[in-house]
Automatic annotation (TrEMBL):
It comes from the Bacteria. Residues 271-336 form the HTH luxR-type domain. This is LuxR family transcriptional regulator. SMART domains: HTH_LUXR.
Length: 343
């Protein structure tokens, strides 16, 4: 999966980094909170999620102002500024409607943009979003989190990672905590988090005319499922899909279920969860996982780098819709009859 980086400008001259992968109908992805296009693809689970989500489409992502590879701005975060940034991204793609997907903070932003541009959105997907940010947590909890991020970004990012990705392995949580800190300053992270708490798009949902899909996890610890239900209820004809799990990040937990729901709605091919789903190399890696080998041992056996072995394992987990190496081993035992290769 290779991404091509470029730049677009908002009307006030703020430069935004934009990344494109694949070809086909544009699928514009509005990320949640902070992000970094130059570093997210280094995380195997994130890379595998985007690869599966965007297969057969032109996946377009961007770093919002002050985050990742985008330029900082003297303007404070606001819904109006978020919409201007999305204007710039979509405007650079050429004529024709786009498929639009917003996750977390990006969900109310995407809904508001779809309401303002009814002819520009073919289909709308909202994952892990909310109608009113004030309903995400009690006032004292919101104030505590904002203060923690502002005063101690390291600890704040670790606390939020625990909320966002409780189902992720400890190493993945640590990596995502580092990723958040590399994506923005504490001040920017705090301001964007505050924006999320302030957003209320309830009055705008009735103006969304594009076919819409709302996907939410039943135990989401960052955005209660009631907010997903409210989003679907506010958009005429919207379909609500509630998936099992607690993690707010779409690539943690049963990411394959998220991908399948979205791709089915967008009219893209959905891979079968069967033995033929894995490539020959992935089946080889699954066999080594089944035999109890670590990523380092798999890399040595196959003559590849350890990070590549880690990437193979993460892609296998995503394709099979499982969470752990033990589940990969169980799948292999159930679907493959050959003996695992010797170390």
């Amino acid at each position: 999966m290779r991404q091509h980086l470029g730049r677009v400008r908002t009307t006030d001259g703020t430069e935004l980094a934009i990344a494109e992968t694949g070809a086909g109908r544009p699928l514009v992805y509005v990320n949640g909170w902070v992000g970094h296009l130059g570093q997210d693809m280094a995380m195997p689970s994130v890379r595998a999620f985007y690869a599966s989500l965007g297969e057969g489409a032109r996946l377009v992502r961007y770093d919002r102002a002050g985050c990742g590879l985008s330029s900082p701005s003297g303007r404070a975060p606001s819904l109006a500024f978020e919409l201007e940034q999305l204007d710039a991204v979509v405007g650079a793609l050429g004529p024709g409607p786009v498929d639009l997907m917003g996750t977390s903070l990006g969900a109310p932003v995407a809904a508001a943009w779809a309401a303002a541009h009814p002819d520009a959105v073919r289909r709308l997907v909202l994952y892990g979003g909310w109608v009113n940010g004030a309903d995400l947590a009690p006032p004292d909890v919101r104030a505590h989190i904002l203060g923690l991020v502002e005063a101690h970004w390291g600890l704040g990012s670790e606390v939020l990672t625990g909320v966002f990705a409780p189902d992720a392995p400890p190493a993945d949580r640590a990596e995502f905590g580092r990723y958040q800190r590399a994506s923005s300053t504490a001040a920017t992270a705090r301001a964007l988090l505050a924006l999320g708490y302030e957003l209320d798009v309830g009055a705008l949902l009735g103006r969304v005319h594009a076919p819409a899909l709302v996907v939410h996890r039943a135990g989401d610890r960052a955005a209660p499922v009631a907010q997903g239900t409210a989003l679907a209820r506010g958009i005429a004809g919207a379909r609500l899909v509630v998936l099992s799990g607690r993690s707010h990040l779409p690539w943690v937990g049963d990411a394959a279920a998220v991908v399948a729901a979205v791709r089915r709605f967008l009219g893209l091919r959905v891979a079968r969860r069967a033995a033929g789903l894995l490539t020959s190399r992935q089946r080889e890696v699954a066999a080594l996982v089944s035999a109890g080998h670590t990523n380092r041992e798999i890399a040595a056996h196959l003559g590849i780098e350890e990070r590549s072995a880690e990437g193979h394992v993460e892609r296998i987990r995503l394709r099979l819709g499982v969470r752990s190496r033990a589940q990969v081993a169980a799948w292999y035992a159930a679907h493959e009859t050959g003996s695992p290769p010797a170390p």
